[in-house]
Structure formats: C-alpha cells, structure tokens
Amino acid sequence: MKAPIHKNIESQVHTVTVQELREPHFDPNWHFHPHYQLFTVMEGTGKRLIGDSIQTFGPGDTVFLGPDVPHLWRSDPAYFEAGSALGTHGIVVYFQEDFLGKDFLDKPETLSLRQLLGEAKRGIEYRGELREHIRQQLLAFTRSDGLKNIIRLLSLLDLLAHDNSSGQPISSYGYVNTYKVSETERMQKVHNYVLQHFFQEIRLGDVASLAGMTEAAFCRYFKARANKTFIDFVNEIRIGHACKLLLEDKWTIAQIAYDSGFDSLSNFNRNFKKYIGHTPREYKGNY
Q1: Nuclease: is it a keyword of this entry (predicted)?
Q2: How far apart are CA 13 and CA 65, in angstroms?
Q3: Alpha carbon of 136 to those of 62, 143, 152, 164, 170: distances in Å?
Q4: pLDDT tens digits, residue range 47-63?
Q5: Which strands form 167-169's sheet, in the order they lie side by side?
Q6: Which domains are assigned to the chain?
Q7: Which is nearest to 44 in space by CA: 20, 69, 61?
Q8: What is the pLDDT of residues 103-162, one digit of tens each?
C-alpha cells in the first residue's frame, strides 16, 4: 500500500491549481497538505474523515479545508470490487495563503477573508443555495485558466467570507492537527482496517497490534491524536453507515443494526441516540 504523505500539490505554472477527478474510487490515502482546498463531489458515495469528524458523503458534498487538516474521502467498498462499473467524479481547487503575495492579507479590506481562512482550519461544509453556486463555479474553473481563475477564486472567496448561514464547521472547536508526516502510515492502517471491518467485531488487541503498540498505549495515542477514543471512532463509522441505510428505506431497523456492526438492537438504539440525538425511528421519520 502506498504510504500516505504530506501531499505536494505545488504547480510551477499556475497560482491556482484545479483538478477534475474521474477515477473508479477517490484517493483512499489519509493525508494532509499545506494548501487550502475547495472540493465538491459530483459522483460517488462513502465515508468522509476530516480532522476529528466522521460523516457519510454523496453527490453534492462540498467542503472548504484549511492547510494541514487531515482528510479522506473513502469510497464505499463496492467501488473497490473487481469488475465494478461504479466511478467517482470530483472537482478540487487548491491554493496557498500567499497566492496573491505575502502582504495581500494584511490589507484592511481583507479582514473578512482572513476570518474565513481562519475558520477553514476546522473545515467548513456548505449546504443550500450557496453550495449549488460553489459547485457551478468549480465547474467553471475547469473550463478556464490563468487570470480568469484567479479572479473567479477571489470572487468566490469574497462570497464565502460574507456568508452567515450556509457554512457549518466540520471539526470540533480548537481542533489542531497533531500528526507528524511519519505517523500517517500508522493511522492509515488503523483507518483502513476499521473502514473495511466495521460491520464485524473489532478487537482492540488486533488494531493495537496493527499499529505496533500495546492496547493501553494505543488507546492513549489514538485519543491524543484523534480527539476521541477509539471506541467512539468505530461507533461513529457504524452510526454513519446506519444513517445512510435508514435513508435508503430498504431494510428494517434491526437489519440495519446488525449490518452496521452492532451486536444487539438495544445497543444500536442506545448508541444511535448518543451520537445523533434521536432514535433511529425518529431520524428516519424526520428525513
């Protein structure tokens, strides 16, 4: 497996880097980089890990990330199956804080932009009409380049900087990336294992061994880095999967509980209420 790294997205030609991604699945490597990133999912489903947040994603998912925020859009298992006809499509724009010069953000007119870039260090998810506007602008990025894209980015950032309702923070308040590049391979192994086996019993000893640590040391390490316990991490993955199945409305709540890795319906209901704030039946009815 290719070890995840501190991604290098530097372009020697463009100040603003635009990539249109069309692959059988999204990049499965958990990583971070020194760029701001505005990304939208046009096609594809799976689990989204950003900072200390775990959510499911689908077409329309639109996120703005600051530098060095660990992230991963992990496509559902069906995308990795041999002979799968599924595919993913996403558009991403990368830029660095000094893309218009080192003193640009010191200008008094850029106060709201500085605030937006600060908020992006937790990650921001966009919804509603603004999200659709962002998606249309990202599509427009793929059809032009040069100065037009710099002007388009400035206009879009100005719009986001003055938004007061459509953007929601993703990671918890005060979240800081404490990972070192040398540690990403260890956490990649843990993430891969949980995402591939969450619907089964997961033994702490097996995961700790995978990370090359004792159980106690691994629990301390994981909580210090992920800002949550390993058990919470596993349960959030399971609950996210259950939310997706509940909205598909094809299975009973009991079937969803066991398919998501819970050993009993009561355990599933208790954890669902803990993480979502509603019972599975209430969640299904609300949506």
Answers
A1: no
A2: 23
A3: 11, 11, 11, 20, 22
A4: 999 988 999 999 999 99
A5: 17-23, 88-95, 36-43, 62-65, 124-126, 167-169
A6: 17-169 (2.60.120.280), 198-286 (1.10.10.60)
A7: 61
A8: 888 888 889 999 999 999 999 999 999 999 999 999 999 998 889 999 999 999 999 999
